[in-house]
Amino acid sequence: MRPEEHVTPAAASSAAAEAPPVPLTMEGSSVLHQMMRIRWSAWRELSGSVRKDVVDEAVSALSEMEEPGERQSALYSLLGHKGDLMFVHFRRGFEELNQVELKLARLRLWDYLEQTSSYLSMVELGLYESTARIYASLLEKGAAPQSPEWSAGIEEALSYQRKAMAPRLYPEIPPRKYCCFYPMDRRRGETRNWYMLPLSERSQLTDSHGKIGRRYAGAVRQIITTSVGFDDWEWGVDLFADDPLVFKKLIYEMRFDEVSAIYAMFGTFYVGLRLRAAELPAMLNG
Questions:
Q1: What is each CA distance from 50 to 54, 161, 255, in whole angstroms?
Q2: Cα–Cα distance, 220 to 213 (Å, whole number)
Q3: Nearest to residue 67, comparing CAs of 277, 280, 227, 270?
Q4: pLDDT means over runs of 10, the chain (286 residues)
Q5: Which of 166, 164, 163, 131 is nearest to 150 (CA)?
């Protein structure tokens, strides 16, 4: 079975009535954001030679970690009072993220950093449109939801999708000058609840919302991660661009779309400039 198989109107109607309300998703890279504050007073007390040794060790470790690939880290110099540095790590699993944390914690530089926040998530691609087709096709074939036949059919379809979407599931960190990161939820209030909408309506709203983002494709790269069960919000959003004004334009335009205007709730925003490992000495020592 392939997601693009033809589905009859009768089957689609049956799917709407009987299929689970949960859209299918595909997950990829595990992602960790670490926001840090530099303990400047303690750092300035060090002699020049000690600072050099500390920085050289950190540059060596970070240079290796920032090499492009699906296992990659990037460092950003944060703007504002929320911190001085933000580490962004993309890895193949939580175990690898844990090793990254431990590797950084063993650096002497870590004695002069204070973690102000962090965010754990996983790259996610939502399959609203494909979900309806897959569910309808399985129902037409007589597979009962949650049965072994149902699960096998879904896995077959997702296996095909994973191969096609591998570059998006395991992306490199875009080499853009600026990064904007923020977490978000879908509203679950007394009068508006995203999760109580029919799957077809959520699919339509999501498609309309996505069209806005696609218009900015050349100016900004967006990576969506799921944090359901992992952190305090439901998703994390990373935007990468060479002009920070595009963050404002994109997010402002999306505010007028129904998905954001009615159902979106946003957490703390972090904006930083890409800081290559080789640039760390100048940043720390002036």
A1: 6, 52, 49
A2: 9
A3: 277
A4: 41 56 94 98 96 97 94 97 98 98 98 98 92 92 93 92 93 97 88 84 82 85 96 97 96 88 92 98 92
A5: 131
Residues linked to residue 13 through DSSP beta bridges, in sequence order: none
Residue tagged active-site, from 112, 178, 182, 270: 182
Nearest to 133 by CA among 16, 219, 254, 275: 16
Q: Which amino acid is at 24?
A: L
SS3 content of the chain, % helix, strand, coil (to 5): 45, 25, 30
**Dihedral sign of CA atoms 126, 254, 82, 48 in order:** positive
182 is catalytic: yes
Strand-pairing partners, residue 270, are 181
Measured distance CA(180)–CA(256) in Å, rounded: 20
* Chain position carrying tokens 């950084």: 104
H-state helical runs in 45-93: 48-65
